[in-house]
Amino acid sequence: MSGGHAHTGGATARPSAPTERILTFAAIVCGALTLLGLVVLWPSDDRPRTDPAMLDADPVAARVQGVKLLPCSYDPLLECSVATISVVEGITSGEVFTFETPAGGSGKQLAAGDDVQVIATPTLDGSVAYSFYEYERATPMLWLALLFVTAILVLGRWRGLGALAGLAASLIVIVVFLLPSLLDGNAAVPVALVAASVIAYVALYLAHGFGPLTTVALLSTFAALVVTGVLSWIFVRLTNFTGYTDDATAFLDALSVPIDPRGILLAGIVIGSLGVLDDVTVTQVSAVAELRASRPHASTPELFRSGLRIGRDHISSTVNTLFLAYAGASLPLLLLFSEARQGLGSIVTRELVAVEVVRSLVGSIGLVSAVPISTWLAAQVLPAEPHDDPRDRHEHEPGHDAAGPA
Questions:
Q1: DSSP 78
Q2: 280: pLDDT confidence band, cut at 50, 70 and 90?
């Protein structure tokens, strides 16, 4: 990995020694605050757990041997699809049972040769009752993950390896800290900000190397995250969201898990915005560094304007990408409301849809704010070289755009 340029390629521009010390100090202070947040919000793991829905059930692998259409056991006048399933792992491997579903039902129907997962439940008489749990998806998902890793390593090489390490670290932070801390009843927004800070430190420095330009991207990401978090807090309250937008939240509430549904919503917006924000800040810092390296005598305002022109192009595509991602995730819901012949105004203001609208708009505003923040900070820390040649002075007189077109 590079010794300190955030995607800067061949750029040689770097801050002065005093500026580097200031950046390092700022990163250390933010890191200390992050560590303090980790200590204060670290989950205690002493809350008693209940699982009435058997969410922690341990499924075992099985295979569908065959499927027949037979009268349903509960109503001989109806036709059911009866699958014969054989357990292929665990202490009950080799046992065979049948599983029936109404014929012609919606969704994928079991077919001979399907690999599935089943749950074995002991009964009072000592026998074992089996129930269908899920289709076996581990193999195709593993192949897809290998394809993803290969593509990243082939194109990104060492930087790709750092990006994969950052991705793994992000997953660890979410699983080890974020989720347990939220289940522990800690305030969702501080937990999300601390988790986002840890992820930003690890992901940015692993992917782009330790150096001043990476630190500029990191600090810019933090500033844009604050903008996103504040706007989220304001508009989630102004729009009177309850936070009960899906079955999972209602189920957690039914289990008496000490969560704040609106807080969880806010935390989701913060974490969801982080991935796009660090992409924008790294790109902008890289662009400004390249501009400074190619035009060392451009003034700071000229450098800022040129970098901002590049950022406008980036934003125009990224905002649309963010909106389409949210729209795609809510597509079944939008289809349902459209089928009900509801007007656009009625659809948009329903909480299920309004949450995604607010999430998209707040995330986009945070994304837009990241461009001038990162561009300005990068322009400030990369000073212009003094004009030693009279021709340079003439070249940078009013009317000459030293930074060139974006």
A1: S
A2: confident
Residue 214 CA: distances (Å) to CA of 8, 246, 305: 10, 38, 21
Pairing state between β 96-102 and 79-87: antiparallel
d(CA 214, CA 4): 6
Phi first, then psi: what are they for 108, rounded to 5°? Answer: -70, 130
The mean pLDDT value of the chain amounts to 79
Residue 53, number of CB atoms within 10 A of its CB: 10
CB distance 265 to 355 below 8 Å: yes
Give the separation between CA 379 and CA 291, rounded to whole angstroms.
Answer: 10
Nearest alpha-carbon partner for 267 in 171, 324, 187, 330: 187
DSSP classification of residue 383: P
CB-based contact 289:2 (threshold 8 Å): no
Residue from 194, 381, 181 nearest 270 by CA = 194
Torsion of CA 305, 307, 308, 314, to 10 degrees: 160
pLDDT tens profile 100-158: 888 776 667 788 888 888 888 877 777 778 888 888 888 889 999 999 999 988 887 87
DSSP calls for 127-149: -EEEEEEEE--HHHHHHHHHHHH
Position 293 scores a pLDDT of 83
CA distance 27 to 376: 18
Please write the tens of the pLDDT for every residue from 383-404: 777 665 544 444 444 444 433 3
pLDDT digits (tens, 9 = 90+) for 27-42: 999 999 999 999 999 9
Q: What is the largest distance, in Å, between two alpha-carbon atoms of the chain?
A: 98
